[in-house]
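Notes continue from the previous slide.

Worked example: a multi-chain complex. Inputs as given:
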Amino acid sequence: MNRALVEMTLLVAILSSCLLLVVYARHRQASAQPDGGYPVIGERGVSVSTARAEAVRWLMTTNHREIGLLYIAFGTVAALWGGVDAMMMRTHLLTPAADIWTEQTYNELFTTHGLTMLIFFVAPVFFGIGNYFLPLLIGADDMAFPRLNAVGFWMLPPALVLSRLGILAEVTGKALSLIVPSEWISFLLALREPAIGWTLYPPLSSATQNPQINFLLLGLHLSGIATTIAAINFIVTIVYERADDVGWDDLDMFSWNMLVTSGIAMFAFPLLGSALLMLLFDRNFGTTFFATEGGSPILWQHLFWFWGHPEVYIIFLPAAGLLSHILPKFVGRRLFGFKFVVYSTFAIGVLSFGVWAHHMFTTGIDPRVRASFMATSVAIAVPSAIKVFNWITTIWNGNVKLAAPTILCVGGIGTFIYGGITGVFLAVIPVDILYHDTYYVVGHFHLILMGIIPLMMFAASYYWYPVLTGRMYDRRLAIFQSVLLVFGSALTFATLVVIGFLELPRRYATYPPEFVPLQVVATVGSYLIGLSVLLWLYNVLWSYFHGDPIENADPWDLKSTEQFTREWQWLEDKLERERGIEPVEPEEVRPSYVPPTEVEKTFSEQLLTVGRRVGNNAIVGAAGGLVGTLLMSGVLFAAVTLGVFDLASFADLAGLVGLPATVGLGYLIFLVGGMTVWPLLFLTLGEYLPGELNLVTGLGYATVISTGFAIAFYAGQIGLELVGYLVFTLVAHWAYGLGLAGTLEYLGVYRPPRRRSYERD
Amino acid sequence: MGNGAETPGDPTETSGSDVTGRRDASDEPRHDLGDHADHDEHEHRSRWPLVAAAGAGGLYAGFGVYLLGSVADVAPPAVGIGLAGVGAVVLLVGLAGWLEQAFLAPARAGTSHKSRESYVDTTVLFLATDVSTFGAVFVYYFFIRVGTWPPQELPPLLSSLVLVNTLVLLSSSVTLHYAHEALDHGRRRRFLGLLGTTLVLGVLFLGGQVYEYYEFVVREGFTLSSGVFGSAFFGLTGLHGFHVTLGVAAIAILCWRALRGDYGTERDTSVATVSLYWHFVDAVWLFLVLVLYGGAAV
Ligand code: HEM
Ligand SMILES: [Cu+2]
């Protein structure tokens, strides 16, 4: 089977099915009209003149929302194209030998897949979402430079065509060679999809003859210009076009992230652009930029990753922004620690330029350089972790609603944690030397690239579907699709991490037969992803014509938690204007956030308050701790009599802190610890985590700390003794937890610091 | 594309239910008009972006086809050059149309609603991206300067030509600065004179560069592909020369508009942005002379 033909057939089949679906849906809609069933939105007759007017409108528009839709459509096509590459790759890997397609084909597939997805799918879709919604969110009339905006968009299609001219030329050539002599079309047949890896490392990329590589470099350069233009436009829009009542403090999370993303893109892409042209010159004009005798291939890697690592954040940050924006709407709580999420975004923006060499740990660069890049790479996990904790805390104690965006958000957080943690390990030089260029790396980055980025795009498409179309999508299908997607991604890429643990190198078309089962699992997972994408396409296209028209501008009940943001306000005005739908008011408002009613205080007053708080906490905590520890001692005493707990452990404890190793002293330390460290930790957690401190939290807390105790006081018990030891440890801690929490509750101290009034009445 | 038959601003063609309404229009509900009617429709349509992008696509494709011809020898290079040339012209036309429609016409009519500050800051952002663009090539030069140095092919770099050229570019920055001052003080003739001088100096600089290239390439046989230093030298001076060319074109436009009397004390946005660009290019040149000419010679 010829790869190019298979791929283009698949792609064209998907695209034309979409078209057919649209035509059919529209037809059905037209015929459903007479019975008065559907209020018709967006109905247009099809005639030559209207078609012409439509074409003119879409080709010449400078309206930010229309350009946004164009971006999204373009990005979706690119995603499908890159997705077909991916599906073919996974299919290829079903068998250990290269017998479905050739090795060469496999190499082509992973090259074009990577480039298409990273360059032509992700950023365009996010820029599309940004184009549509960012001006609405900040109350701007349009982007700062509407025409420039259009220029930036329209450079992308030629860039994509140039980049993927190899396969287009091949298929065209094949078709034409049926009717014209092949020497006429030799230039078409000279082009082949490149097979040099998406990272385009020289000397392979400079020595390979294939002239398509020139077109690829040119196409990428053109797309880089487009990205830079868009980035500048976003920055100027956010800085200068905000409505008068949108100050920096009111800027929403998505816009913050787009701002930082654009800032990164603005520095990263021009540098890539120069590097691409330098490579082009090396290939064609005898320069030595990346030749061994000149700048060396290592220079390419430096330049490439100086763009490449920031690029991963360019595409991750908008996803993070969407998550931070959407998640609160579905849990009815304001984003926890808003400010810190913004700071973390800036921290990522800055740090992302300081970690690039972690992609080059195995190239033999200076060990001192490596060590410093290891440090920065580990550090960059911190701001990402801040985001994760804030997201989780936002959900905590919220009023979680089951909807497709919720599933996608929660799933996205989960896979992001997995992807991020595998990344931190890779940042550690010895680990990376083992796993570099194995499937582990592929698993790592896909858990992020697949595990959160498209998820957030889907979440946004569902969340804003009513704004985009005035209708609601099929919710049941969407929930199914979301679950399938999350499951498919986790299955596929977690399996790849496992394959990587077994140290199978990546980028090979063949592999040892013992990997077949795992590879098959990964392929099945990827098919699930593919299926869910098709379901999404079906849902959004079909619902555009047949979804239930929304009855008011608040389909998500945002007003009732005071999260009715500007884009919905815009929709409300529009509905009122066009369909005469009156704004609705919720029956009951449950604020998503009650600002603390603290009055301004001087520093010394604040110090005093804090001091008093700590003092109070310490006293009450000590009381609770005393009760808890005494209860715990009772249980432990029983354990001692049964012989599963060794009193000598107390003596060890005393010895550990440098006192004479007697049981009495050890017990005293134990008691003091139980009255200070652990109650205070408990109270602190209660202070900073949302939610109530009560008997249940006490039990949970005690369960967690019992694991530490079990390890620390272990005295070599085995068999039944060990079981008894563990059971008694746990029970003793429960006694402690109940005692502690019960006392605190009895004394009535811990009301959470900002108790939400609505929850009590 | 670019054919004048469509009136880009015809609201009746595009009304309908896919409304492109805006928040600020919300206080006056209109059901029948769509809400294009309550906005400057011409703001939502323009053919120039498409023209410019198509031109850019043609330019790039032409370059690719040219390489296809010259390297893989399957198509005559002239085809590529032709395509690139057409693309470049279309690109320029598109850019000109866009400039006229987006900036010049509103500026003339006094309907520009954007602040001068936002244009200046946009220019600063653009220059920041340019730092990156130059950065990559400079990094190459630093790599070889600390690496395989000295190369075989070092030509005589420091000559009176470089000195003269540097002085020319420096003084063009000075004249442009004082031209702007003169404009601020409403001294039109002085403004015009200094602006014209700047243009002449810019062209002189370019002439100097061409002359230097001629000397190196023809007399010394030192070319782009001569070796590690050739790449750095022609890469950096070429990139810089390209920027100067753009700058000269921009200053030429300034001159033309100045002659038409488009500028005044309060209307100097494009003078301010072009100055910024020109000073930047000047600063890059100084750095370049220092590290490339100076740094290689020592
Ligand atoms: C927690 C923060 C992260 C750390 C510490 C980290 C660390 C690393 C390291 C050390 C590598 C190199 C592995 C190797 O090739 O040997 C790597 C590869 C990669 N990472 Fe991450 N990463 C992080 C987050 C991300 C994010 C957010 C993305 C994407 C959105 C991402 C995408 C990638 C990609 C695409 C590659 C592979 C590039 C290639 O060789 O083809 N990483 N990561
Ligand atoms: Cu990285």
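Summary box: Residues A 309, 312, 355, 358-359 surround copper (II) ion (ligand 2) (CB under 6 Å). The first strand of chain A starts at residue 471 and ends at 472.
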